[in-house]
Amino acid sequence: MEESRVVLVTGGSKGIGRVIAERFRDAGHRVAATYRSGGVPDGVLGLQCDITDQAQVDAAFEQVESELGPVEVLVANAGVTKDTLILRMSDEDWDQVIDTNLTGTFRVVRRAARPMTRARFGRIIMISSVVGFIGSPGQLNYAASKSGLVGMARSLTRELGSRNVTANVIAPGFIETDMTAVLPEETIKGYKARIPSGRLGSSDDVAAAALFLAGDGAGYISGAVLPVDGGLGMGH
Ligand code: NDP
Questions:
Q1: Domain spanning 6-175+203-225, CATH architecture
Q2: How far apart are CA 100 and CA 78, in angstroms?
Q3: Which residues pair with 169 in a beta bridge?
Q4: Does the predicted TM-score (pTM) go above 0.95?
Q5: What's the pLDDT score for residue 179?
Q6: Ligand 1, closest atom to CA 18?
Q7: CA quadruple 113, 142, 37, 91: dihedral sign
Q8: Helices 15-26 & 203-214, crossing angle to 10 degrees?
């Protein structure tokens, strides 16, 4: 039996983050999850928090600390897309995606780092994307935000590694959630043809990787990129 940890998942209202929160809860951990709209699964402490606002991030951490204890496992999952081709991409399209996916992750990681360092234990898991490695037309902002997480995880590994804090990146491929439901049928067909597994992934596929990286057996894995993409990005 793994030790029970205090886990915080950002973006736990739906999609991948919601399933990650459920699987950690089912494994006996004490789980909190942030949401902006909607809610979080039963048995999970819900925290209303927009990660583009440091004050809201700080308040969410304070609530977890007072109700469950210091965060030991952070899953930085919240993310958005604002797709359009470069010639049409506005500053606002760029800023919104970077501010949420990259700077938002920085905000939560920075807040988590001190208590983890103090406790001499921490697991930081960032949800990136295969798109950050192989690129995607119409997703310059998104791809830049997601590949940026690798530099962040590797720098964290160098800063905090000696304190038993690990930082890893999960790079999902195409996972069936609201985010991919908006893609045209033709695009999905095209992706399926390129995925060696021949199918889109599920949120459970990603949650299994997060549980592994948070687990007692993964303490010597840090600065790694774990693809969960059916082979789509092989070689990155
Ligand atoms: P969804 O759109 O289904 O869920 C996104 C989650 O992020 C929601 O809970 C949403 O909260 C939250 N969120 C968005 N912006 C903010 C914000 N500013 N502050 C706090 N929370 C926010 O997406 P997925 O589940 O598909 O994606 C989850 C992560 O996985 C993302 O980082 C995404 O980039 C990544 N990913 C997804 C892939 C896919 O194929 N689906 C592939 C590769 C990576 P709310 O709805 O309450 O606003």
A1: 3-Layer(aba) Sandwich (3.40)
A2: 8
A3: 126, 225
A4: yes
A5: 83
A6: 9
A7: positive
A8: 50
The pLDDT tens digits of the residues spanning 62-95 come to 999 999 999 999 999 999 999 999 999 999 999 9
171 three-state secondary structure: strand
Tell me the per-residue pLDDT of 110-125, one tens digit each, with 9 for 90 and over: 999 999 999 999 999 9
Which of 177, 178, 197, 228 has most ligand 1 atoms within 8 Å of CB, for mutation?
A: 177
DSSP string, 23-72: HHHHTT-EEEEEESSS---TTSEEEE--TT-HHHHHHHHHHHHHHT-S-S
Q: How far apart are CA 220 and CA 138, in angstroms?
A: 37
Distance of alpha carbon 76 from alpha carbon 64, whole angstroms:
15
Distance from residue 14's CA to the centre of ligand 1 (Å): 8
